[in-house]
Amino acid sequence: MSTNSFSSVQHGQHGQHGQHGQSSAASGTPQSATIALTMSHATNVGPWTWDTDGPQPLPLDFNNPANLRNWSADVRVMIMVQEITSSLAVRPISGTPDAVTVTLQNGTAIARIDRPGVETFAKQLNYLEYYADQRVERTAEILSQLTDLISPFGAVLPLHPERHRWTFELLQVALEAVSLIEMQCKHLLACRRPNEFSAQVHPMIQTPGHGALPSGHATEAFLVATLLRDLAQTAPHQPHLAEQQLLRQAARIAQNRTAAGVHFPVDSAAGATLGVSVGGYILEMAGSAGHAHGWHCKSDTFGGSDFTYETVTGIFGPDPLETVDPSENATIEYATPLAYSLLVHPATTALHQLYTLAKEEWTTSVAPQARGR
């Protein structure tokens, strides 16, 4: 299953679809056809006339979210990414510990990540050595996930680009929006990468040129898992253990980044909570009720804990998340829930229009038709 056209998740590649007019493929008119159409205009159109009494095109409704279906895919994505990100702000909090929050415009937090101290990262260096032994068996996954985070979830749910075209577009919108949010968090938290602690980490891929925490791959993988979990719940039939396998796949993607040598486990814990928080907000904004809660990740308490599937088994629930720190032989509460109220009515958003189309693909198993595709 090829999904690369929908899932450019390499940091910095988000948004490149918006360079309108710079690609003949994007415009739909190759250069040779442009020349031909210029000549046909000169020979076929004839003298210009306009009948002011003839039929006129009806105006589109002003400020109507349903207009979304008249636009091309890249335009729809830009509109909805802006719709999501303009309703949120990433804010620094100086204190003990320092932190970042993702807030609504009224200042209410939907997510918070506390900054770990250097001692937390130092305790986690042994996991870089442990997971390095798994590089050979994980290489294919690590390399493919540099540019595609959606295909792995197609192994969990019956996800296909043609049958679920609107689902893929919803995922693209969400991934592009969350990448902007996560990059602001990385910038403000400014956490160093593993190979800055020890030259023996020896990453197997190029270390990205931005901060480590939160992990972008973990953020995006858990965001995708959150959205697909919601959509799959509307289907007449769900594959056995679908929710569990979505979480396992997201956790595996996050672990692969530690195996590659570019992330600490605590980076994944912070990313997982951010991804689920933003994913829930996007669903709430799109009109899927019951998701108005996020996570406060207390990364500074994570200590010498590893990040595994067991670390996040309760991440879709209401209770605090716990992990075990073997260096202290203690159970640690590393994330607590946050509650908020949505400030925008879902029916007024373009995102709601797309979510409705995506949801219909799961309830009927048939992709609804629309203009602009």
What does this structure look like?
There is one protein chain. With 373 residues, the chain is α+β, with helices and mostly antiparallel strands. It has one domain: Vanadium-containing Chloroperoxidase, domain 1. 41% of the residues lie in helices and 10% in strands. The protein has 10 helices and 6 strands. Strands 1-2-3-4-6-5 form a 6-stranded mixed beta sheet, covered by helices on one side. Strand 2 and strand 3 (109-114) form a beta hairpin. Helix 5 (135-144) packs across helix 8 and helix 6 (165-189) runs antiparallel to helix 7. The longest helix has 25 residues, at 165-189. It is globular and about 85 Å long. The relative contact order is 0.15.
Keywords:
Vanadium-containing Chloroperoxidase, domain 1; six-stranded mixed sheet; alpha+beta; 10 helices; 10% strand; 373 residues
Please give the structural blueprint.
Elements: H1 24-27, H2 31-44, H3 73-85, E1 88-93, E2 99-104, E3 109-114, H4 118-132, H5 135-144, H6 165-189, H7 216-232, H8 242-259, H9 265-286, E4 293-297, E5 321-325, E6 330-339, H10 350-364
Parallel strand pairs: 3-4
Antiparallel strand pairs: 1-2, 2-3, 4-6, 5-6
